From TrEMBL:
<comment type="similarity">
    <text>In the N-terminal section; belongs to the HesA/MoeB/ThiF family. UBA4 subfamily.</text>
</comment>
<keyword id="KW-0819">tRNA processing</keyword>
<feature type="binding site">
    <location>
        <position position="298"/>
    </location>
    <ligand>
        <name>Zn(2+)</name>
    </ligand>
</feature>
<feature type="coiled-coil region">
    <location>
        <begin position="5"/>
        <end position="32"/>
    </location>
</feature>
<dbReference type="GO" id="GO:0061604">
    <property type="term" value="F:molybdopterin-synthase sulfurtransferase activity"/>
</dbReference>
<keyword id="KW-0808">Transferase</keyword>
<dbReference type="GO" id="GO:0032447">
    <property type="term" value="P:protein urmylation"/>
</dbReference>
<keyword id="KW-0963">Cytoplasm</keyword>
<dbReference type="InterPro" id="IPR000594">
    <property type="entry name" value="ThiF_NAD_FAD-bd"/>
</dbReference>
<feature type="binding site">
    <location>
        <begin position="120"/>
        <end position="124"/>
    </location>
    <ligand>
        <name>ATP</name>
    </ligand>
</feature>
<dbReference type="GO" id="GO:0006777">
    <property type="term" value="P:Mo-molybdopterin cofactor biosynthetic process"/>
</dbReference>
<feature type="binding site">
    <location>
        <position position="295"/>
    </location>
    <ligand>
        <name>Zn(2+)</name>
    </ligand>
</feature>
<dbReference type="GO" id="GO:0005524">
    <property type="term" value="F:ATP binding"/>
</dbReference>
<keyword id="KW-0479">Metal-binding</keyword>
<feature type="binding site">
    <location>
        <position position="223"/>
    </location>
    <ligand>
        <name>Zn(2+)</name>
    </ligand>
</feature>
<dbReference type="GO" id="GO:0042292">
    <property type="term" value="F:URM1 activating enzyme activity"/>
</dbReference>
<keyword id="KW-1015">Disulfide bond</keyword>
Length: 457
């Protein structure tokens, strides 16, 4: 009897241990599930942000170093926890911005991006890691932010901001931040129509800019730029290049201004444009022209009272990547496959690579002649002479008296089209008569469709 009871007790103890282990496992699982934000592919109404009446002991410990600042204090910290910020673009600017806002204790962060993480992003988009390649950027950023501060509510959006969803989305967030050109007008207008300030920055090559639009009577983006720039003059990071730390610095400045606005100190950047020259290590602050009474969206009698078609307005696509120019007719262009057969058949021709030398140093086709587009546009005499010599040589090789064919290539097929237009003007005057064609899609099309061993950058 006593023996049986003893055995049962031992069994019971064993079962209790098992139950405790299962409970623990379940709690861990629930905790980790709750901390993984769910990716949103559309805009859904958000529940109001739960407002903290006071700071917890953990909050006090976590934020102690900034709580000591008289400029912030407990009141400012509580204001941060009651603020939601929408970050449009989780790239080079968005990563440090999200990181510092989360670290500082912003209540809710909306993270919007329609791209996936690529290897070429990692030098500047420091929230993503090698293991996140191919993952939605918004989700990768949200996970990284959650690791840093699990008390921040993170909502990753894997969607493209459009006139249909922008106002609905932006109305749910007091502050916003923007990205490329068509999106810039879209976000500006949505912010003006929703009465939100817009902390905007950009970074390209070795330069950065920052300003706060639509804030306490400051101008909006349209007040300053009523007309979009011609699409062919807009450079982005994938064709202009950027040193990773430059957007890093500008993203930190954005975080600074957002934190000042959100905590209640206010931004002093409203009427100013901050310019950062990383090469010369100089900051300059330019006073902006004031809010314009005749502004199409924030003026006295606005013509934009709801969102419009921004791609049509700007003449380019709203994503950073797929900006494709169409300057030439079909017979002025050939595909990479067609060019490949010219090469395979040893057809006499000249291939002019119009990329800047720095890109030619990264990779090039061995038989190409490098004359940068800028040299052609400026009619640089040594380059023009070189090209003329090659045309004469080619004419001697050709059996017939056809015009020597010149093909023009660049990285993606935009600059090469401009170069074709320049060369056509020169043909028969500054140069012997030639037939000029653009190689569609450039070297990146060559890399994806013809030669997979050719480097992509
Ligand atoms: Zn305006």
């Amino acid at each position: 009897m006593a023996q049986e009871a003893g055995s049962l007790k031992a069994q019971l103890k064993e079962k209790e241990k098992e139950i405790a282990a299962l409970k623990n496992k379940l709690a861990q699982l629930e905790k980790s599930h709750a901390s993984v934000p769910e990716l949103q592919d559309k805009v859904t109404p958000l529940s109001p942000l739960t407002t903290k009446p006071a700071l917890s002991n953990e909050d006090i410990m976590r934020y102690s170093r900034q709580l000591l600042l008289p400029e912030l204090g407990v009141k400012g910290q509580l204001n941060l926890s009651r603020t939601s910020v929408l970050i449009v673009g989780c790239g080079g600017l968005g990563c440090p911005l999200a990181q510092y806002l989360a670290a500082a204790g912003i209540g809710r962060l909306g993270l919007l991006d329609y791209d996936e993480v690529e290897l070429s992003n990692l030098h500047r988009q420091v929230l993503h890691g090698e293991e996140n390649q191919g993952q939605a950027k918004a989700l990768s950023a949200a996970r990284a932010v959650k690791r840093l501060n699990s008390t921040v509510e993170c909502i990753p959006y894997h969607l493209q901001l459009s006139p249909e969803n922008a106002v609905q989305l932006i109305q749910q967030y007091p502050n916003s931040y923007i990205y490329n050109v068509p999106t810039r007008y879209l976000v500006n207008d949505a912010c003006v129509l929703s009465g939100k300030p817009l902390v905007s920055a950009s970074a390209l090559r070795m330069e950065g800019q920052l300003t706060v639009y639509n804030y306490r009577g400051s101008p909006c983006y349209r007040c300053l730029y009523p007309v979009p720039p011609p699409p062919e003059t807009v450079t982005n990071c994938s064709d202009g290049g950027v040193l990773g730390v430059v957007p890093g610095i500008m993203g930190c400045f954005q975080a600074l201004e957002v934190l000042k606005i959100a905590s209640g100190q206010g931004s002093s950047c409203g009427q100013q444009l901050l310019m950062f020259d990383a090469q010369g290590f100089r900051f300059r602050s330019i006073r902006l022209r004031p809010k314009q009474a005749d502004c199409a969206v924030c003026g006295e009698s606005p013509s934009v009272t709801q969102l419009i078609d921004y791609e049509a307005f700007c003449g380019s696509a709203a994503t950073d990547k797929c900006r494709k120019l169409n300057l030439l007719s079909k017979d002025q262009r050939i595909t990479v496959q067609e060019y490949k057969s010219v090469v395979d058949n040893s057809g006499p021709h000249i291939l002019v690579d119009v990329r800047p030398t720095v890109e030619v140093d990264i990779c090039h086709l061995p038989f190409s002649l490098n004359i940068p587009l800028s040299s052609l546009e400026q009619r640089k005499s040594e380059d023009i002479r070189l090209l003329q010599q090659r045309i004469i040589q080619l004419k001697q090789q050709m059996a017939d008296d056809h015009q020597p064919p010149v093909y023009v290539i660049c990285k993606l097929g935009n600059d090469s089209q401009k170069a074709v237009q320049v060369l056509e003007k020169m043909s028969g005057s500054e140069l012997d008569s030639i037939t000029v064609k653009d190689v569609c899609g450039g070297l990146m099309a060559w890399a994806t469709k013809i030669d997979p061993a050719f480097p992509q950058y």
